[in-house]
């Protein structure tokens, strides 16, 4: 860039440097947002508001001792899921051949200190949510993210089954 700028006229050189500075600022803001994602804070996503509640694509099935939920990993997307607080979660992430990449693997849940290296097939992630609300989970770079929606009661969780829950 410096070599290119040196052959430009003075007028264009200033414009190129201003443009370059703007690019650095924009990239810096994006990287700060991804850093917040990795901390589990939610970050500043320019493409999507983080306070919008997305309907879960998978809803946990609660038994006496634990709850189970299954999601599928796709190359550029993690699926939102819903669980109930206080009950241990056994979350299976199913990965098809060709869906894993350097971008979506490993998966992290910063709030629980979990980092899971995924493999083709079924991957089990276990945790117990202690509080209701949204828990962010993300790829190791903070670029791909989704949420675990934690509900207070089994009844509140069961009310979601009309929206395409797993049976």
Describe the fold and architecture.
This protein is α/β, with parallel strands linked by helices. Helix content is 25%, strand content 29%. It is built from 3 helices and 10 strands; from the N terminus they run H-H-E-E-E-E-E-E-E-E-E-E-H. The chain has helices spanning 2-7, 10-39, 154-158, and strands spanning 58-59, 61-62, 67-73, 81-84, 89-95, 107-109, 114-116, 121-127, 133-139, 145-151. The strands form 2 sheets. The protein has a 6-stranded mixed β-sheet. Strands 2-3-5-8 form a 4-stranded mixed β-sheet, with no helix packed on it. Strand 6 and strand 7 (114-116) form a beta hairpin. The longest helix is centred in the N-terminal third of the chain and has 30 residues, at 10-39. The model is unreliable at 43-52 and 163-167 (pLDDT under 50).
**Total beta strand runs:** 10
What string gives the helices and strands in order?
Answer: HHEEEEEEEEEEH
Largest sheet: 6 strands, mixed
Number of helices: 3
Assign an overall shape: elongated
- The parts where pLDDT drops under 50 for at least 5 residues are 43-52, 163-167
Helix content: 10-25%
Radius of gyration computed on alpha carbons? 20 Å
Distance between the termini: 56 Å
| Alpha-beta content class | alpha/beta
Average of pLDDT: 80
How large a portion of the residues is in β-strands, by DSSP E?
25-35%
Write the layout of secondary structure elements.
Layout: H1 2-7, H2 10-39, E1 58-59, E2 61-62, E3 67-73, E4 81-84, E5 89-95, E6 107-109, E7 114-116, E8 121-127, E9 133-139, E10 145-151, H3 154-158
Parallel strand pairs: 1-4, 3-5, 4-10
Antiparallel strand pairs: 2-3, 5-8, 6-7, 6-9, 9-10
